[in-house]
Amino acid sequence: MSTKLIGFAVSIYILAAFAAGQKGVIPRTDAALPESPRVVSTEAIILNARLAPPELASDTLIKIATSGLNLRNYDRKFLIEEAIKLAREVKNPVRMRLVPIQGVAVDTETGYLNYAFELKLDGLSLMSRAIKAMVPLDRTRARHLIFLLNGKLGLGRIACGDTLTYDVSDIYSTVMDVAKAGFTKKEIETGSRALFLLPWLENLESPAQVGPALDLLIEFSLQPNERELLTSFLSRSLRRNFGDDRSFTFSIERDQILSKIARLISGPAAPSKIEIKSAFREYLGLNLGSPRCKGNEIANESKIPAYAADINRIYFDDPIKFELVGDMDVAESPKVRFLWTSEMARKLMQQLRAIRLIGQSNGQTPDDSDQRYEKIISLLELLDSWKADGDEPDSAIFNQKCIVYRTLLSSVPESNDKKLVTRSYLRYLSSAPMQKTNFIEWYLHVKHLANVDFKLFEEMSSEIPNQTFILLKQLKLVKL
Predict the structure, then answer these.
(1) Ordered per-residue pLDDT tens for the chain, 480 residues
(2) Cα angle: 202, vertex 207, 210; to 5 degrees
(3) d(Cα 418, Cα 87) in Å, to the nearest integer?
(4) 250 and 389 together in one domain
(5) Are 246 and 165 part of one and the same domain?
(6) Residues 312 and 270 reside in one and the same domain
C-alpha cells in the first residue's frame, strides 16, 4: 500500500472523528480502511468489523473492548454498547445444544449446527459477554442492561421431533457477576440485590433454566433474607408442568440437576430447604407423569433409568413410583437427518479414499504426484457439480462439501496441491448461500480453515474479496 494511500485513509478517519464530535471514539462509517498485509491498526479492524455480519461484528467489538489494546474506558464502553445493538440483529437468538440420541452419531444436520453454536455467536451469548465486559467499566449500566432483560428470554417449548435444546448458562453466570459487583452494602441490606435477582428465578420459561437457577442459589453468597426470598420464588416457579419433555429429560440427565438439588438441601434443616425440596419433588412428578418423547418414556419397570434411582435416593420418603410415571402417552421420535447417505456423497468419499491411498504401498514417486493431481482435479469438478435437490437441504450439502474439502486438504502432502484445494475451498465458501442464511454454520468452517494453516489461508484468501476473510486475518494478526 502506498504512503499516499495510507495518509489519505488516516485523514478520512481524523475528519470523521472530528465530525462525530466524539474524541477518541471510532466513528461509524461504511468504508473500511485499506487492508495492509501485515500491520493492522485497531481502527482498521473496527471499521472492517462494521461491514461484517452482526455475529462477527459484535464478537470482534467485544474482543477489542476487553483486550489489552491502548483504549480509554470511554472508548471501550462505546464499543460494548455497539456490540449489544449488533447482538440483537443476529439470526440465532439463543445458543442450542445437541440432545444425544441413542445409536445416532454426530454426523447429522443438527450435529454440525451444534458445533456452530459452540462458537457462542448467538444473540444471548454475545449479550452475556458484552454485559460481563461492562461490569468493570460501568456497574450501573451493567445492572440496567440485566434489568432490561428481566429474566424473560423468550424460550418456547422444544418439540419431541427436535434434537436441539437451549443452553442459557452464560447469561445466568453474567447475572451473578453483575450482582456480585454492582451493589453496595446498603443496597444489599435493603433488599435491592434480591429484587434484582428475582426475575431470573421467578420467570422460568423452560426446564433448561432450572439448572442455572439452582446454580445461582448454590454458588452465590446470599444474605439469609435474600436466600429465603429467592428460594421461595424459585419454588413457586418449579411447581408446574412445562410441557417440554425434550428439555426436561435432557436437563435431568445432562445438567446434574439432581446433584445440585441435593447440594442445596444438604446440611442443617431450614424452612427454605424444606420448601425447595418439596417444590422440586412436585416439578419431577408433574413432568415425569406427562406425555414423554419417544426414547424418554419409562415403559418397563425393570428398565428404570439411572436418574430415577438418583431421584429416589433423595426422596427416599416419597419415591417416584412406576405406576405414576410408566405407561404415559408417547409423543413423536426425534427427527434425525443423516449425512453421507446420497449417491454423490458415497462417490466423493470413494474418490477421497483413492487419493489417500496413492503412494502408500511403494512410497512417493513422480508418477504418484501426477496421478494425485489428476484425481484432485476430478474430485474438485465433481464437488463443484454437487447441488442440493429435493431430498437434501442446502445446509446438509454445504456441511458435507466442507468436510470433503477438509479431508482432502489433510490428504495431500504437496504444497502446490494444498494451494489448489485451498483456493477452490475458499471460492466455494465465499459464494456459498450459507454465509447469509446461517452465518455461524458457515463461519465454523471458515474459522477451521484459518486455524489449520493460517499462512496458507492468508495467502490464498488475498485473491478473494470477502469481508469476513479480511477481518479474520486481521484478528489473527493482532492475536484477538
Answers:
(1) 443 333 333 333 322 332 333 334 444 444 444 444 556 789 999 999 999 999 999 999 999 999 998 899 999 999 999 999 999 999 999 999 999 887 666 788 899 999 999 999 999 999 999 999 999 999 999 999 999 999 999 999 999 999 999 999 999 999 999 999 999 999 999 999 999 999 999 999 999 999 999 999 998 889 999 999 999 999 999 999 999 999 999 999 988 999 999 999 999 999 999 999 999 999 999 999 888 888 888 777 767 788 888 998 999 998 888 766 666 677 778 888 889 989 999 999 999 999 988 866 666 666 788 889 999 999 999 999 998 777 788 999 999 999 999 999 999 888 899 999 999 999 999 999 999 999 999 999 999 999 999 999 999 999 999 999 999 999 999 998
(2) 55
(3) 36
(4) no
(5) yes
(6) yes
Residues 267 and 206 reside in one and the same domain: yes
H/E element, 164: strand 164-166
The neighbour count for residue 8, using CB atoms within 10 Å, is 12
Say if residues 405 and 383 touch (Cβ distance below 8 Å): yes
Question: Which residue is associated with the grid cell 436437563?
Answer: 251
Q: Count Cβ atoms within 10 A of the Cβ of residue 18 and give its class: 0-12 exposed, 13-18 middle, 19 or more buried.
A: exposed
Cell of 365: 514417486
| Statement to judge: residues 99 and 203 lie in one domain | yes
Residues 6+ apart with CB under 8 A from 203: 150, 151, 152, 237
Are 189 and 86 part of one and the same domain?
A: no
Residue with cell 421467578: 202
For every residue of 85-97, DSSP letters joined together read: HHHTTSS--S-EE
Cα gap 267→269, rounded to integer Å: 6
When divided into structural domains, the chain yields a total of 3
Range of the domain at 364: 343-477
Between the CA atoms of 151, 154, 159 and 163, what dihedral angle is there, to the nearest 10 degrees?
-80
The reply to whether 243 and 104 lie within a common domain is yes
**Residue 473's CB: how many other CB atoms inside 10 A?**
20
